[in-house]
Amino acid sequence: MDELIRAVLRFRDEREWRQFHNPKDLAISIALEAAELLERFQWKTPAEVAIALQDEANRRRVGEEIADVLILLISLADAVGLDLVEGARAKRHENARKYPVERARGNARKYHELE
Amino acid sequence: MDELIRAVLRFRDEREWRQFHNPKDLAISIALEAAELLERFQWKTPAEVAIALQDEANRRRVGEEIADVLILLISLADAVGLDLVEGARAKRHENARKYPVERARGNARKYHELE
Amino acid sequence: MDELIRAVLRFRDEREWRQFHNPKDLAISIALEAAELLERFQWKTPAEVAIALQDEANRRRVGEEIADVLILLISLADAVGLDLVEGARAKRHENARKYPVERARGNARKYHELE
Amino acid sequence: MDELIRAVLRFRDEREWRQFHNPKDLAISIALEAAELLERFQWKTPAEVAIALQDEANRRRVGEEIADVLILLISLADAVGLDLVEGARAKRHENARKYPVERARGNARKYHELE
User: Fold this and answer.
1) Which of A9, B98, C70, C105 could form a disulfide with B111 if both were Cys (CB 3.0 to 4.6 A apart)?
2) What is residue D13's predicted lDDT score, i.e. its pLDDT?
């Protein structure tokens, strides 16, 4: 991952794209790429999604959309001076606190509805 | 990152949430979290964004939204059987092909408009 | 509808909000409200959605999110100087051309896949 | 508007598309079309947006994306049995209550921050 982050930022800097990478437009881009990812599942029942994902070309395309979002997250984290992996680790710890195993097990409710 | 991925999946499995993690709803969640991230920048000019990000509490909140998206990307990649980091690496290589340094330098146009 | 459009614009002008209503931030707002609308259906199967919509309070909340999107569409159309209803009418005519009844009947495919 | 709503629903029924129009997928479609609308403004400063919108072709494309969202809102309101215009009217009244003129004038803050 460290290597990926370095590669993504080097890619940006070699093309002198940092000037375009203001946080607001990066956040817009993330929302737009998330929409393209979601588009892959539109108008499909869960069963149809499962079948579609057995097709290697479909899975590859889903993978490419996931990658687009990840690359933009790396860019945005850098643009606002945050450590992407460290931030996710902290968030996961907070989630562990909000969703204790014994209460959240097999339960899809939001934390404020858990008690 | 490997450790983060393992922790995210262990968190899910301890709560027996895999049953809820169908790819379509995970993709919806990613779009919704991306919207929450974008909300942090709404109604702000680029200058106002820069000022807001100097505030530690604001930056931390942006970091939490970024983390939410990353954690869901990890979950979706696992649900469809894809390697998140490997996929991003492949995509970055493809981007390097589509945006050659000499043509893309300082240029925000899309690859199909580059020449 | 004409009355609604006038009421929405009067609401905006009485509060002197036109200064904030630049098209880019209105488009962001539409995307964010669309996400809140989608959130109402998250983690639900089609059958669970149907049940949830029989609950009057749930339906009212969906209606409020739909209304939020419509009000913002009215504001954006005005901000860019477009006639909302006329534009939708023109688009519908174009759709009728792209999706001829005899070929599109009972068929969810996109127009470029119809032939 | 009444005429537009009738035309949109007739368009759907002539193609026997009602079977595909479950509320969840319509809400996904609205989010995706809202993303396409937002894409028109991506990577542009407010000043660049203003210039782009003086171009007739650009404005027409923005109008088409707005129309796509409106047509889907009409379809979703029908699918869940709600009156689109009536719902927006009710929401506007609620907004008038949440944002009293004297407190909200020239003020972009959210209602829960107003006092």
Assistant:
1) B98
2) 94
CB contact under 8 A, D66 and C59: no
B45 closest CA partner among D20, D7, A93, C22: C22
Q: Name which of D41, D80, D81, D78 is nearest D61 in CA terms.
A: D41
Using DSSP, state whether A107 is helix, strand or coil. Answer: coil
pLDDT at residue A64, rounded to an integer? 96
**Nearest-CA distance B32 → chain D (Å):** 10
Nearest CB to A108; choose among C28, C43, C108: C43
Amino acid at B22: N
Please judge whether D38 and A31 are an interchain contact, meaning their C-beta atoms are less than 8 angstroms apart. Answer: yes
CB-based contact D92:C14 (threshold 8 Å): no
**Given pLDDT bands bounded at 50, 70 and 90, which one contains residue D108?**
confident
- Separation between Cα atoms, residue C89 and residue C93, nearest integer Å: 6
Would the pLDDT of B78 be above 70?
yes
Q: List pLDDT tens digits, range A72-96.
A: 999 999 999 999 999 999 999 999 9
ipTM of this predicted structure: 0.92
What angle, rounded to 10 degrees, do the helices at C84-98 and D2-14 form? 20
Amino acid sitting at position A59: R
**Which of D72, D28, D21 has the alpha carbon at shortest distance from A34?**
D28
| Tens-place pLDDT, residues B4-23 | 999 999 999 999 999 888 99
Between chain B and chain D, the number of residue pairs with CB atoms below 8 A apart is: 6
User: For B35, which of C25, C31, C41 is closest by C-beta distance?
Assistant: C31
C24, D46 in Cβ contact below 8 A? yes
Amino acid (one-letter) located at D82? L
Chains C and D form CB pairs within 8 A to the count of 191
Q: What are the CA-CA distances from residue A33 to residues A64, B26, C29, D92 (Å)? A: 10, 14, 17, 32
Could you report the per-residue pLDDT of D39-75, keeping only the tens digit for each?
999 999 889 999 999 999 999 999 999 999 999 999 9
Q: What is the DSSP string of C21-81?
A: --HHHHHHHHHHHHHHHHHTTTT--HHHHHHHTTSHHHHHHHHHHHHHHHHHHHHHHHHTT
Q: Give pLDDT tens digits for A9-32.
A: 999 999 999 988 899 999 999 999
CB-based contact B20 C43, cutoff 8 Å: yes
Whole-number Å distance between alpha carbons of D43 and C57: 40
Nearest to D35 among A25, A35, A41 (CB): A35
| Spatial CA neighbour of D6 closest among D85, D66, D64 | D85
Handedness of CA B62, B65, B70, B71 (dihedral sign): positive
